[in-house]
Amino acid sequence: MFEALTARPPDSILALVQMYRDDPRQTKVDLGVGVYKDATGLTPIMRAVKTAEKQLWDVQDTKVYTGLAGDPAFSDAMINLVLGTAVARDAVASVATPGGTGAVRQAFELVQMARPDARVFVSDPTWPNHLSILGYLNVDVVNYRYFDEETRGVDFDGMIADLKTAKSGDVVLLHGCCHNPTGANLNLTQWQAVIDVLLETGAVPMIDIAYQGFGDGLDEDAAATRLVASSVPECLIAASCSKNFGIYRERTGVLMVVSQSTQARKLHQDTLAFLNRQNFSFPPDHGARLVTMILTDDALRADWMAELEEVRGNMLDLRSQLAAELQRLSGSDRFGFLAQHRGMFSRLGTTQDKVIEMREKHAIYMVGDSRMNIAGLNAQTVPILAQAIIDAGV
Ligand code: LMR
Prior knowledge:
CATH class of the largest domain: Alpha Beta
Number of domains: 2
Bound molecules: (2S)-2-hydroxybutanedioic acid
Number of strands: 11
Strand order of the largest sheet: 2-8-7-6-5-3-4
Radius of gyration: 21 Å
Distance between the termini: 49 Å
CATH architecture of the largest domain: 3-Layer(aba) Sandwich
CATH superfamily of the largest domain: Type I PLP-dependent aspartate aminotransferase-like (Major domain)
């Protein structure tokens, strides 16, 4: 039977990881997959995570199943982290999922169950795996304009015009902060305008928030999500702990359904638990438990927040260094957008040919759409990248 299978195109981000590994050049620079790296190129285990793991080893006396929704304390901690006091706790149904991707996948499945003909509006561009999962599930996708190739900011008028074509029962996928792959984000006034369109059209927002704390700060990065959740009748939120807790391989995420109708919450909660049961039964617990311990212990939380601020500061410094070096080399301000972008990524805004040229000539690995992981840089490689960008005539 398996001869009927056809080859799947490789994931553009993950294929690059392998190409980078296979490149023997010492000077190679990895700006591919979205993983934080310190100045030595290491993706460290955060201090608070290590401490929590030690504490857990001492106190954990069973690994029996949790509930289908995971430990409710994890959901509570994550609802507090993402939503703060923006909505009442009893307005939120929530389950632990295997990573942010697990939450995204089940959010789309939930939409399909509720509304088989729903279209999902996605930013052009968006994280490639959004498109891959939607394609796999046979969901109708509509692109909305997002990235302005000229300014490397948001094409806000285009975005609003396209979102106005959504209808009640459609879903609009939004990146809560640190847009992946562009790094270009809306300000809060623009978010309010998006909310007005959502209310006008009746489309349901789904927020993917995978980089909270990597942009302008933990609360600042959640501000748009909180504004949306407190303004619309219903929304979906997929949150990841991979990046801001540095626990990539633990697969820790959460899917929330926020509804102004607290009566609907039980049905939403039961449906989310049902989806977990169909897909994998019980969600992974180790990472979720560490996150819960960190968020509910004053000392661990303070240490985690301090380290997250260091991480965020490092990425902002690298952005400024790169923009300054490019200004020096080009004698122009046209790369100033790199310092304006937020989060782990910036889309340079050049052709695939130039991306390949930089890879072949300078061993610079960025994703084919010219997405760069800023955290893959350090003080030594910033000038190398800047020179490669100028040499390629970007
Ligand atoms: C990325 O965009 O690089 C990360 O979200 C990792 C992934 O799974 O693609």
